[in-house]
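Much of what follows relies on a compact textual record of a protein's fold. A complete example follows; check for yourself that the lines match position by position.
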Amino acid sequence: MILIGYLSHRKNPRTVKQAYYFAVAAQKENAEFLFFSPKGIDIANRKINGYILVKNQWKKVERRFPDVIFNHGNPGKMAHSQDKIDVLKQEIPFTSHSIGSKMTVYYYKKDNKEAVILERNVDENSVKMSFYNNGERKDLFIETNDKKTVQVNTKNQLLGLNITDSLQTDNLWQTILYSSIARIKTENVNGKECYKVSNFYSPYWMYGDNITEFYIEKDTGLLIKTVIDDEVAVREYSFDDVEDSAFVEPDIGLYTVVEEN
């Protein structure tokens, strides 16, 4: 199972409302989400002491080093722990929620084959993760500015992209409650007529501190754009035209083979 780390300068995940929605989203994709602060980093034993979400409650746990770390900490408040953070950065891809960042995700599926390619650029730092499942074996390729590694026949689960309902709730009462404060307008996105839904707080989606908007195409009902504060994500869909070339893996000889943490 892929382990996603969430580094924060705060010690308690209950004070970071976005963390809950990240954890729920990770669970839906069969991944584990670990919230931690610099205090929980144990370099000597290669462990992280933090929190995971279990039955909607945060539970203290000890875990291995994550496969990727989402850096949401305030640099000034974590300066005293920069040495430990630098050690993690040497071997774990870091990404962050910041202005000037761009992330692109490609997901391909055909018969029993799947491929996910995630590319993110923050300032001058880039991270690319490519996950291939040919039905018999799963390989994970990770590229950063200074190294290229691969986990062969990994036990990690592929983070697939599903067509999901952005207005999903647990029951009718939640739907009525959230709808009562939601705002819906009509807006054009790249030539497509859409419903712009704001102020609808689904328990299955993260939302921003200031802006949370979903753009749903009128003709298909597909979610084609989201705005979460300063992060804008645009989705494009294509069906029944996936080529076999999408599942061709990179040359393993160009990568350093590493064991899973």
